User: What shape does this take?
Amino acid sequence: MNKKISNITDVISLRTLQRIQDNFSGALGVTLSIYDTRGKKLTKTSNQTRFWKEIIEDNNLIYPECKRNIQKAIEAAIHKADIYALEDYCDTTIFTVPITINDKVVAVYVSGRGRKGNPDLKRCHEEAERLGLDFDNFLEAYLELPFLDDHKIEAITRLLKTTANTISGLSFVGSQSKEKLKEAEYMNQLLEEEIEIRNIALLKSERKYRTIVENALDIICTMDPDGILTSINEIGTKYIGLPKEEIVGTHYSNYIYPKDLPAIKKEIQEIKNGERDAVTDLQYQGNRSDRNFSIRAKALRDSSGNLIEIDCIIRDITEKADLQKELETTKEKFKDLFDAVPDVIYSCDFKTGEFTAINQAGCKLFGYSEEEIIGKPVETLYVNPKDRKMFLEEIEEKGYYHGFIAHLKHRSGRDFYVETYSNLKRDKNGNPIAVEGVLRDVTTRIRLSHKLQESEQKFKDIFENAFDAIILIDEKGNIFDANKKAKRLYGEKTINIKKILEQELPMLIQNATKRGNYNIPMTSIEVAGKTHYVSLAISKIKTNSKTLFHIIAHNIESIIQKKPGKVATPRIKAKVKV
Assistant: This one.
């Protein structure tokens, strides 16, 4: 043949390739497809397994790696111009066989997708958990994979190679019929050998399967389309309390608690009608009301879609059900306690800020029902939403924020203040996921504090701007505070009242202590060589922590200057240099 051929489809139609592939795959029970030399899939996959379709192809965690393995196997087969096999995901096997025309590889068979033995249950469980899949479904799909030991792989690859050679031969126009007949006879012989190998492997696999079934902790049974039990494992007989021979041949309804029977009949009928192929986690009670079970049933149908049997896995979930009841009871008790607490207890999502839980005190504080406030962003309840941002920055950094004062608002628009004690909750990777804490209404305290601050400010303004000198002292005469006038008259930096009033001070304190207040109409004070004529008034002031005395020194020099004759000898005179 002189024509240069680069692609297999140049000489053989895809339809013919698909028919050859489907026949081969159906006879040997393996997955099979044909790829071109660039790794592009030419035919639809024959005998596609549920494990590949549902577990691998639909999962981005593992599919890219499996796809790369296929490409690697194709490239290896092209490079070697021979069979190539490799282990793929979860101990499965794939192998590639090149198809050559004129000694040039023009396409590649990709086959396999089988398991080399019984599943490693621990690994299967870890993989199901990693991928977020149901373990029972994962294991069930894995067990559906064809069993491919080394001997079987060798036989299949030989047959594939022969098929590849046959395809190559089909490309030559005018090939001898006799040679094709010999090839067909040889292939038929190999197929018969393979069928025998498959029967032996099937027998071994069935024995292993039977061992697994009989030693399973779950009840495993089968029934025909009419609901008659056709098999049951040892654990099932123990639960029912009858020998196997008395159970097989009876209807499943004999072993179902009456109140659960209608629901199960409905599910089974839907399987019979073809409305569904499986029942997942249908819970019911057995023929004893003190046990609870979960049933998974799957339909087995022939190539025409007719129901052959229903396979069931039944798990005793009594302990789980009891724990669930106990949990529900605990939840109810916790809910009662949760709602009885007078302070607000809440939880919200860290990212969205939406409430995920709040007690009745919180509902009352904000003016919403529980249904209305759950899912509501906390930020919408802040008078100033920027405060929420600052709060989140602080709690993310420290992991907690205790004593934060939040200015919030009621549904009606009325504002109030709360003091929060909140903690940050993180997932196992350390990412923040929730904020949980307690809120306490401190509106009265905060507003009294504001009023006190306003009052103090007013007093401070009056004190500092008073026309007279004002000094605050304690019981020992130590200065506590002085206003601007006092500092200006008697010393800006240091006011030593003991020196200034060393004669008058004991008497002033003594009289003010007894009477509450005391006045000296006139006295003179010398400061830095200058005489000041003043009247003194002292009052006793009680605070929460100590007793203070309030001294007002009123300048009377203008009066003295107008009436100098009356001030010949001051009643009390203190001469002090400051």
In short: The radius of gyration is 47 Å.
